[in-house]
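Researcher: Here's a chain I'd like modeled. Treat it as a single chain, no partners, no ligands.
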Amino acid sequence: MRKKCLILFLLAYVRLASAQTTTISGYVKEAETGESIAAATVMLEGSNKAVMTNKYGFYSISFQAQNNAVLVARCLGFQEKKEILAGATTLDFLLQSQSKELDEVMVTAPKYQKLSSTEQMSQIAISTRQIKEIPALLGEKDVLKVLQLLPGVQKGSEGNVGLYVRGGSADQNLLILDDAVVYNANHLFGFFSVFNGDAIKNTTLTKGGFPARYGGRLSSVVEMQMKEGNKYKTEGEVGIGLLSSRLTLGGPLKKGVASYLIAARRTYSDLIIGLASDNSPSIYFYDLNAKVNYDFGHKNKLFLSGYFGKDVFSFDALDYQNIKESDGFKWGNSTATLRWNHVFGAKVFANTSLLFTNYHFKVYNEEKNDITQKVFTKDFSSQITDIGLKSDFDINWHDKHSLKSGFQWVSHTFSPNAYVYENQYLDSLQVVENKTTGIESNFYAEDTWKPNSKLSLNMGFRLALFGLQAKTFFFVEPRMSVNYKLNEHSSLKASYSVMNQYLHLLSNSGIGLPTDLWVPSTEKIAPQHAKQWALGYANDLEKHHLNFTAELYYKKLENIIAYKDGASFQLLNVKPNAERISQVDWQENVTSGKGESYGLELFLQKQTGKLNGWVGYTLSWTKYQFAELNDGKFFYPRQDRRHDLSIVGIYKITPKINFSATWIYGSGAFMRIPVANYTLRAFSSQSTNGLYSEDRRTVTRYTQRDEFRAAPYHRLDLACQFHKTKKKNKVRTWEIGIYNAYNRVNPFYYEYGIKGFEGMYPPSDTKEKLLRKGIAPIVPSITYQLKF
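Model: Modeled as a single isolated chain. Structure tokens:
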């Protein structure tokens, strides 16, 4: 009996041992620089078992134990690499970038990245190469301008970098730079973004099907990672354009172990404008990205990164009778991230970040008497400051399950309207300021489950808590994404997500002016809320190196806010002669409403070859409703664009010359335009001399919010780059570009007038017509770049 039991035990042990799984983990990195590679694929050769590296380049793969197993690592733009396992539990891959010759003849499969294999939908990654090769205004490469060319993303007014995703507003996008939130992405009144393309390594846009690890915004997540710097040699890049210059430096602090990166930009528009006149306005921006990192062995890595940027716009408004008056704006962002990566064995990876973010702006006015040196100043400012801690865990706990979990704590300090009034003539100083602190806490968990070769699911939830003084909000946000493979190359996808947003943006203008007031949810103003459903189809046309996706979506919005008609963004009452200044409660200046957005998005992308790029098309509807706007009726807001089409092409003429073009078309935005002027006459009560005084006031009547749709927007941009390799591997690049190549007058605003007439008093027998006014005609540019 004992022998039988022993034999059964040994057979069971052998069977169990044969079924044991092996877990291998490690990093995928660039061989030339040592930088980690996100979204690389690591697979077990001869099977369908595959995983992707996380955004820090880490992977963990589990499979049935076998002899002489081979792992394969591949990523778009790099040569495939195979490694034979020899009993190790950790394995790093160093991938060589593909040469230009390989890139032209398209001989290797690793360059092609499938979209049908992942359960994630409504997500698009943009490479640094694409950002640098796509035409840009004045040659200034811009991450957000490239994202505006994707389906589901609407641009704002001409030149604005704001993103309007699936019917949402610009404040409903979560902009993340190295885990830190950026609140205002505008440089130079929105013509450029704060993100320097030379400093960015990865950019990913998520429009729906949000994983549980993301929260706090309703419409999209734009996540960017800064480069880490070359760990083996010093390298740099210098760019000189018509508007700005930039410098990027990176290299080893300790070879193979630690590195740094510094990227700086500054415009010299103030110097150019100043040549025209001494009284010309001064307008410029500058920014700085910096990062250092250190590898403490395989299990620990430490990163410190930051961003600082500022815009200045000032002008002398008046110089009269020894009184000099000056006005201006100043605004800027600052971020700092201290990040620690730690590996707990082969199955658990952790990232912990300590975060700081600040956004501020100031509008000022100063009058100075040159004789008495007395000063009269008015400063209005607003800012938001965040201090946060977050920790995220990737847990490969089963060969069919991958768990992500984590928490975040953020302290928001709001100062929406600080006002300083100083009158040295009356020896008075008044300061009005109201600071509020809100605490946001989140916990999430999500599991990616692959029960078989055809089905994969991502299921999760997010617990969100926001507290402000005596009011606390708590929400449970379920998330789910499903991918079902129809065959090797195509799949059906579906997703559902619930999002809440505790912060509101009160913006006075849609043209990139920095009058942005960030305010918290309160007892009167509830958090914004959204539910989104999406259904999609993905097809990888591998023979032609094409990806095709089609997505239907429906998004329901609640508790969105807008300024009431006639409301002031400064939220102040200033009494005559400045006797008293008092605050106006911002909650009294806004109204809450709801909305919905639905549509179809089509995306065809070619990733490799001499000709690559994409075509994106969106058919969509967006409707808003506010009780105190438009008589309480539904209306189409500015971001309602029925049709939106983008065509992007990059063609490598030779290894040293490439040509790129973009053409965009969009239905016109709804605008409110003047239709009539009325003169109101009023008489005051009888004065002491027995006469009545008359007061005349002109009132303008405007169209309803969705009564007038502007003309369609379309534009062609062109660029050609010439590369030449010099001694010591220096690469010189000249780029010639044309923005708005056929000089289309796209509507920025409308006014009544006589076409071609520039005087003050038009002929009385000529009828005025509604004229379309634009601000960006054909703009040529030339840029020089040296990489060393």
